[in-house]
Amino acid sequence: MHSNSILIALSALIGTLAVSTADVGVGTKTASGATVLIDGSRTMLDEQWTYWEGPRFASSLPIKWKVVDDPVTEGNSIMTFDPAAKGGKYGTADIVTKETYRDFRLHIEFLVMKPGGNSGVYLQNRYEIQVLDGNKTKHGMGAVINETESPYHAYNGTGKWNAYDIVFRAARFTDDKMTQKPLVTMYFNGKKVHTNQQINQVWGGPNSGVDGGNDKGRGITDSPQGLKLQCEGHDVRYRNTWIKKLDLKKADTDFKSSE
Fold it and tell me: Which of 99, 107, 154, 186 has a CA 20 to 30 Å removed from the CA of 25?
């Protein structure tokens, strides 16, 4: 093997190990090269996020979500509160990152305060990873919405912090036609619950996320989008959230935890 080929192979191996040896549970430290999106401060909330102005948008800047005490440990967290979403009106006050992403690793921690608490983590403002206490179906906690069953066994329950650690690979296109569907691998509180899960469409219609109104959610476009968090009028809290851009040449999102 030529020396250049050896260097390329070693670089690829090191890049893989940098992801594969990372911790994935509650309290995981920010990975090298990642951007912190939520640290519990008002400053970061305003710097990194804005409202998603979708079809049902009914709020206004500045973001109405609250900075509140962490109910479990010291520090602050961000609460999905906004009067516009009262009664479960999703899409009225959802927040989205100002930065957009294609392939990435995401770590996000959430706490549901009361039974039935509902929110959602939207990869590329398209594909929902559900946050819904009490629901164990394909619409339930930890599910790739309507694509997988809920891995409810990994959920810590209300009043406790939970962590999703995700590697996502965006859909690939050739001549504006999708040639590879998006893939996701996810750990839920340190347990691997989804591995190279293919995502077939955007669920929930235009009020749910980008491309939801295109061909009943199947008309996905070739564009990076922000990370979105859903506000449904429930007390769900977020902290320790960071994202790292990746460039996944192969159609593979599988990664290993060191735990």
Answer: 99
Q: Tell me, letter by letter, the H, E, C secondary structure of the chain.
A: CCHHHHHHHHHHHHHHHHHHCCCCCCCCCCCCCCEEEECCCHHHHHHHEEECCCCCCCCCCCCCCEEEECCCCCCEEEECCCHHHCCCCCCCCCEEECCCECEEEEEEEEEECCCCCEEEEEECCCEEEEEECCCCCCCCCCCECCCCCCCHHHCCCCCCEEEEEEEEECCEEECCEEEECCEEEEEECCEEEEEEEECCCCCCCCCCCCCCCCHHHCCCCCCCECCEECCCCCCEEEEEEEEEEECCCCCCCCCCCCC
Count of C-beta atoms within a 10 Å radius of residue 29? 11
Residue 36: strand pairing partners? 242
Domains and CATH numbers, the chain: 3-246 (2.60.120.560)
- Are 63 and 189 a contacting pair, CB within 8 Å? no
Structure tokens at 60: 């206004």
Instruction: Give dist(CA 173, CA 232) in Å, integer.
Output: 33
What pTM was estimated for this model as a whole? Answer: 0.91
The pLDDT tens digits of the residues spanning 35-55 come to 999 999 999 999 999 999 999
Nearest-angstrom CA–CA distance, 125 and 226: 6
65: its two tokens: 């979500």
* Cα→Cα distances 167→122, 194, 234, 245, Å: 13, 10, 27, 10
